[in-house]
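User: Sequence for Transposase below. Tokens please.
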Amino acid sequence: MRQGVKVSHSRPYHPQTQGKLERQHRSMIREVFKGICLIDLPTAQLTLDEWRKVYNHERPHGGIGMQVPASRYTSSSRAYQEVLTQIEYGSEL
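Assistant: Structure tokens for Transposase:
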């Protein structure tokens, strides 16, 4: 919020308002977690990092004409602050 980004909340676990995220979670569960046991957090992180690379850079997606998401990404031209200003709270807190 301190970067000027507007926050838009939607209902949790509601595919109609969270469709893209819910669809990604379904793919992640089906492609990463089915039939395996991740023994610790570093192993889980490595597994998810690898899956994310494949999901975004190698795996075609039907919803975008069998392209990979990375081919559709463009970075923002907006510059963001490297260091955020300190939030000051009133003395009544």
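The two ends are 20 Å apart (CA to CA).
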